[in-house]
Amino acid sequence: MTIGTEHEFSVNDADFHPLSAVDRILEDLGGELQNEISFGPVHLSKELQKHVIEFTPAVPAKDLESLEAALYSGLKGFYARTENRYKLLGGGMHPTLKLKEAKVWDHEDKELYEVYDCLFDIRQHGWLNIQALQINLPYASEDEMVRKYNKLRALIPYLVAISASSPFVEGKLNGTMDNRLVYYRENQRQLPIIAHGVVPEKLKNAVHHKQIQEEMFSELRKHGGEKLCHEWVDSRGVIVRFSRCCVELKAIDEQECLRADMAVTAFVLTLLRCDLDLADDDDALRELTEKAIVGGVAPLRSELQKLFRLAFAKARSDERRYLPLIATKIENGSLAETMAEEAHGGAHVFDIMNRMETALRSNVPYQCGACKRQMPY
Prior knowledge:
- The chain is of the alpha+beta class.
- Helix content is 45%, strand content 13%.
- It has helices at 22-30, 64-81, 110-120, 125-128, 142-163, 179-184, 206-222, 258-272, 282-295, 301-314, 317-320, 323-332, 335-344, 349-362; strands at residues 4-12, 36-39, 42-46, 52-57, 87-89, 132-138, 168-169, 172-173, 238-241, 246-253.
- Strands 1, 2, 3, 4, 5, 6, 9 and 10 form an 8-stranded antiparallel β-sheet that branches. Strands 7-8 form a two-stranded antiparallel ribbon.
- It is globular, with a radius of gyration of 19 Å.
């Protein structure tokens, strides 16, 4: 099986002010302005926000070590080609961004964002300040598609808990560990079917998913959103991309570095092989997801410990290299909990962002300056 991931990072100046510079960067690196360019072992592409750039592997990888190597090679190439003019940040949200600092992509595809703006008002954090780690999981049959989709759906609360990395909004803590999802699940509230509160319905078969999509398209057409009637408009935490023959996990925050992203991906892959007894009732899953959004790992620690034991038993050799980081997160808390603990201990948000930037650049998971904890790599 191959694996592909998508990584969203903010582009900043030396003082971590977000820079609406992705169009200039893509033009400089690609020779002409395009939405996506090939850049050695990766593709670089724009997002809705002009200060966010996406890294994806040029080709899907056969294992996580190869995937990490390709992505990190591309990241190091980016720093070299741009002569270290920019500081990149992972995490689910930019910790200090104010909405007036963010600009919307205004080149090719800008008409799509204009439609989104007319329907939903995109001048809000749920559009202009979100960064996700997306994991694309191929399927070879309809049965495999449905099985992966439903298992990922039931795992959403636990994956949200372990990956929470957005405790700051405009430089302040508000007691919530995954603020990205707080905003994301509400960003299309005028047409709630599109996001469905992040947790999708249990899937019966491929026809069922296409029926759900058509219901979305029908609602969009009623409100003048015909241009958005494509499979990518689906904003649930798990979706099917029929055009790619993959199930796409969208619910999780971007982490601080690629090594941490690979650890979360390893946890997902191993759990998909496990026989799991998980709640699949919509209300129960939403309640668990709410706990994870607010508290991160803490409210779900005992369940995560059980899941980790099952996952480790099913892990392949390359995956076991990454899983100790998940064990550390379960013991000590998600990245968001670590950052919040550090801030409560007196650390300034600038210092936290500086450590986040160092983690991404060096590909060494976040090291907490206040609590003296260090991730195990």
